[in-house]
Structure formats: structure tokens, C-alpha cells
Amino acid sequence: MSQAEDTVGSLPPGLAEPAGRLAAALGRALGWRLVSVYAYGSALRGGYRPGVSDLNILAVLDHVEAGDLRAVAAVVKPPVTLAVIGEEEVPDLLAVTPLTLLDIKDAHLLIAGRDILAEGSAERPAIATQVRLELRDKLAQLRADGLAAAAQPKRLPGLLVGHAASLLHTLRGLTRLAGLPPSARPESWPEPLGIAPDDLTQILDLARGQARLTAAQAEARLALLMAVMQAALARTAALMAPPAEPAKPKSRRTKGKAKEEPPAEPAPTPQGDPEPEATPEPAPAPEPTPEPESAPTPEPTSEPAPEPEAAPAAEPEAAAEAGDEAPQ
After folding, report:
1. Coil, strand or helix: which one is 178?
2. What is the DSSP string of 25-83?
């Protein structure tokens, strides 16, 4: 592992020397297994206060074993707060709980080793999930501390300082969802996060230990922190909501009864010579009835013909017809 001692000088006064000593001690204790040493936190963001703030250090090993924790703890001295992770954990941390590593990536100082965070990135859903989880957890813990401090009101101001500092870390993650650059100062957060500027100022003063609170003021700050956490949860949900579909145009309806449409007009007859009407065909003539064959004429005989019997008297009409037919 190569050391980057030339960069340590950019730390605030009084921190460069302890950071350099710590990196060298970690190198002796872990040897080649020490991959990187980073300084991060308020010392790099401009909010470091000597005697109050810690120097945050991240040590990255090739992998972490139980014995490594004892070796590392033996070389850590105040005001250093040390975190240890394995190099193989970095992709999973960025995919599941990315906020801390993203904060380190945005404002860090590589004290020794190689920069394994340079190419790291996280997806918006992963950031939103961690923001929601942290806000829910912080809200539950704040309520629990408020209940515990009800019997001992003097404890509440000190508890609220820790809650305010922790909330600012989560709100910084929310600024990523709101599209603010990593270098954005807290003074630019209110509008994108939907927080009143005065409320954010009170939280900043509380986190920096600049507020001296009476019991009544502490109760008011407790209510403020709870309200901001709930507002941040709502803002996170709004930022991650899918875009609304464009509204469909509404059909214009006529007031009152629907207007009846006039019946459709018959299709116009095409102009031109009218077609001749069909002439009915004549009925076929009845077939002629065959005439009955005439009886053969009997041959004359010598015997006299018998006299015809007297015919009954004919009806007047029949007699008249018979008269017509009589020879002259």
C-alpha cells in the first residue's frame, strides 16, 4: 500500500498529524491487506469544530476478520472515529445502503492506498429505500427518547443534538433524489426538500450544539424534528412517484336531453333513362282437347228400323233450339 501523505495537509489544522500517524499504524498492523484509508465527514465538509467534532476515518481491507478488529482498535485514539469494511462489500453497500459511501465519495481525502470509490455509483431506488428506512428508524427512536425524557426533562436537549445531526445526514441523501449537486450547502436545501428555511436553520444550530435550550424550547425542538422527518418521508414518496399520465380530453356533452338525430334520407336515385318496367309474360294457351272419334256408320239392312220411342216433351228453351235446327 502506498501512502498519500501529500494530501493529508488539506485537513483542518490539528488533524493532519493524527491522520498520518493512524494510516501508518494501520499499515503496520494489517500489512498488504490494508487497501485504502479515507478521511471524511465534517473535517472535509467545513463543519469541523475542534473539541466537539470527531475525525472520521474509513479503513478498507481486502476482507474483514474478527482478529482484524482487535488489531485496528489497538491503534485508534481520539479524536478519531474509525469504520472498517471489506473491499468486496463495496458493490453491495452501494446497491443496498449507499448513503454513507456516497457521502464519503463526494467529500473525502484519500490518506493512503488506492481510491476504490472513484467509480462507485448508486441507483435512485436504492437511495430512496435507504432514506425511507432511516427516516422511519429515526422517527421511532426520537419518539422513544421523547417518552424516556418525559420523566427527566433535562436529558432531552442533549438527546436532540444527536438526533439533529443524524437527521442532517439523511436529508443530504434526500437532496440527491431532489437533483441537488453533492456540493450543495444546507442553506440551499429548503425549497427542493419542502422544508421551511427557519426550521432547517434551527436543526443546523441544534446539530452544531449552538442552541441552549430550556425545557419548553426542547419540547418545541422535539416537535420540530418529528414534523421535519414526516415531511421528508412525504417528499421522498413524491420524488419517487411515477410521472402522471396526461389527462384524456373530456367529451363535450349537451346539457338536457340528447338531441335526436334526423332520420337518414334515402339514397338518391341515379339520374338517366328510367329502366323499362318488366312486361308480364302471357299465360301459355291451353292445349286443345282432342275431339271424340265419330262412330262408324252402320250398313243398311233390309229389316225396317224400329220406330223410335217417343221422346218426352222438351222444355220451352229446348224446343225452341230444336225448332231452329229443323230443316226447312
Report:
1. coil
2. HHHHHHGGGEEEEEEETHHHHT---TTTS-EEEEEEESS--HHHHHHHHTT--TTEEEE
What pLDDT digit, counting tens, does each position of 8-19 carry?
A: 448 888 898 889
Helix (H, G, I), strand (E, B) or coil at 108: strand
Q: Which residue has the cell 419517487?
A: 240
pLDDT of residue 12: 87
Query: Within a 10 A sphere around the Cβ of 316, how many other Cβ atoms?
Result: 8
Phi-psi category of residue 254: left, alpha or beta, with phi > 0 → left and psi -120 to 50 → alpha? beta
Q: Please give the model's pTM, rounded to 2 decimal places.
A: 0.69
Residue 250, CA distances (Å) to 129, 253, 256 in order: 38, 9, 18
Spatial CA neighbour of 53 closest among 252, 171, 210: 210
Q: CA–CA separation, 317 vs 323, rounded Å?
A: 10
Q: For residues 57 and 37, what is the distance between their CA atoms, to the nearest angstrom?
A: 7
Helices 124-149 and 99-106: angle between axes, nearest 10 degrees = 110
Q: pLDDT tens digits, residue range 232-283?
A: 999 999 999 998 777 777 666 555 555 555 555 555 555 545 555 555 555 5
pLDDT higher than 70, residue 305: no
Collapsing DSSP to helix, strand or coil, 113 comes out as: strand
> Does the domain at residues 5-113 carry the CATH identifier 3.20.20.60?
no
Q: What is the DSSP letter of 187?
A: G
Burial 81-112 (b: 16+ CB within 10 A, else e): ebebbbbeebeebbeebbbbbbbbbbbbbbbb
SS3 148: helix
> Domain limits of the chain?
5-113, 124-240
The residue among 57, 34, 35 whose CA lies nearest residue 44 is: 57
CB 14 within 8 A of CB 50: yes
Q: Return the percentage of the chain with pLDDT > 70, whole number.
A: 73
Report the first-to-last Cα separation within the chain, whole angstroms.
168
